[in-house]
Amino acid sequence: MTFYLSSIILINLLMLAMTIHVVRYSGFNKKQKTWYIITFVSVILCATAEFAVHCGYYDPKYSLILTIITVIQFSVAPSMAVFFSGALGLHEESRAAILFCIPHAIIEIVSAPFGWIFYFGEDGYHRGQLFIIYTAFYFASLIYLMISMFVAGKRFRHRDGMTVIMIIITLIAGVIPVTLMNIHTAYISIGMSACMCYIYYNDLVQEDIQAELIEHQKTITNMQEHMISGLASIIESRDTETGEHVSRTREYVRLIAEGALKDGIYTDQINDEYITLIYTLAPMHDVGKIVVSDTILKKPGKLTSEEFEQMKAHASSGGVVIRQILSGISDENYIKFATDIAKYHHERWDGTGYPEMLKGEEIPLCARIMAIADVYDALISERCYKKAIPSDEAKKIIKSESGTHFDPSLVNVFLKYLDSVA
Questions:
Q1: Interatomic CA distance for residues 35 and 13, integer angstroms
Q2: 264's torsion region: left (phi>0), alpha (psi -120 to 50) or beta?
Q3: How many Cβ atoms are within 10 Å of 24's Cβ, its own excluded?
Q4: Contact, 256 vs 368, CB < 8 A?
């Protein structure tokens, strides 16, 4: 009896804790919370009522009040499965199923004075001749709950059939001792099953939310990439005839980054995520040209010193434009990476570049990679102010400026892997 009392107390405390959690939890709407609270409170009510009847301290003078308590328990118990079905999201179905429980409650009330389903004698509680009615309603409600769990599961992308099976086993393991051996373990198993159902449904919700967030993030990422590529192509088409500079340079930066990773160079920064990021954002390296006039961009001859100063402004302007475009739709790391590429890809390893005359590793790695890709492609491409030069000659120029214009380690990687794919 001490064990029985301890079990009931623990189950009631568990249901109380679950009720408090539901009230404070923000993951469910008001309707779902109501169904959960009704379910957990019903378990507390029925478990307490059963203990009052079977605690071993029966006195015939309390038979009337115990009869009332048992009628309430027997009326509510088959409804708990319906309540929890509502908590699983089957609101309309549960409201309809409550009608199934009303006739049973009426039967319990009507039969109580006659002892048809149960009665209290001089020595305590006894089952009546028609106790099978209560058993039938009770098992029907359990079957309804099992069906509801499968139906609710079908509404989600991720389903865990093993959890449903374990809930069913737990329910059966608690009900069988009551039915066959009159050992009162039903509400222990029901309380445990209620918690398992709650966790099961909450997991379904959270997994679907996570899947939706991942899909949403993919959509945002695709939008960003299309926006970046589109904007870069529009700007590039202003000073080139083909606009293929964008697509070629992004392939070069990926080649350099992957090659550096293979050769163990700058591996404290370069990884698969870094490579994806630099490939995605490389097209924005010249976005600052949006502020440069067409007369300068398309001038067929050499720029004057004043015109060159205006052209140089595109680097600093690129960082500003990127922040204006990406602010609010990208995180700070993403924005900084893109800004570094646009703002610093004209810096030189020896510190004579622009806009800030950074030197050596003061220049962000992504900008040092971009510088090689940008200059190489500019050399082998025809522009309004120059003819294209052969690839071999362009590679010689890149090599000759290793240590002055470009990061020597990256130049070695570029020339090594460019030759291997040429």
A1: 19
A2: left
A3: 8
A4: no
Phi first, then psi: what are they for 278, rounded to 5°?
-70, -35
Question: Could you give all domains of the chain from N- to C-terminal order, each with its CATH number?
Answer: 2-211 (1.20.1070.10), 237-421 (1.10.3210.10)
Task: Tally helices (H) and strands (E) across the chain.
Answer: 16, 2
How high is the mean pLDDT of the chain?
81
**Per-residue pLDDT, 241:** 47
Residues 6 or more apart whose CB falls under 8 angstroms from that of 101 comprise 75, 78, 79, 82, 137, 141
Cα separation of 256 and 233, whole Å?
A: 22
pLDDT in tens, 350-378: 999 999 999 999 999 999 999 999 999 98
H or E segment to which residue 268 belongs: none
Q: What phi and psi, each to the nearest 5 degrees, are found at residue 405?
A: -85, -40
> Which run of H or of E encompasses 381?
none
pTM higher than 0.70, yes or no? no
Q: Is the pLDDT of residue 388 over 80?
A: yes
* Nearest alpha-carbon partner for 134 in 175, 162, 163: 175
Please check the confidence at residue 332 and state whether its pLDDT lies above 90: no
Give dist(CA 198, CA 39) in Å, integer: 10
User: Under DSSP, is residue 272 helix (H, G, I), strand (E, B) or coil?
Assistant: helix
| Contacts of 214 by beta carbon, 8 Å cutoff, 6+ apart | none
φ/ψ of residue 386, rounded to 5: -160, 160
Q: What is the DSSP letter of 124?
A: E
Question: b/e map of 149-162 (b: 16 or more CB within 10 Å)?
Answer: beebbeebeebeee
Say if CB 117 and CB 111 are below 8 A apart.
Answer: yes
Q: Which residues have C-beta within 8 Å of that of residue 280, sequence separation ≥ 6? A: 224, 225, 228
The C-alpha R_g of the chain, in whole angstroms, comes to 37
CB-based contact 219:373 (threshold 8 Å): no
Helix ranges (H only) for 112-185 are 131-154, 161-181
226-264 as b/e: b if 16+ CB within 10 A: eebbebbeebbeebbeeeebbbebbebbbbbbbbbbeee
370 to 258, 268, 407: CA distances (angstroms): 13, 18, 11
Which letter, b or e, does each residue of 324-354 get, where b requires 16 or more Cβ atoms within 10 Å of its Cβ? ebbeeebeeebbbbbbbbbbbbbbbbeeebb
| Exposed / middle / buried, residue 313 (Cβ in 10 Å: 0-12, 13-18, 19+) | middle
* d(C-alpha 189, C-alpha 211), whole Å: 32
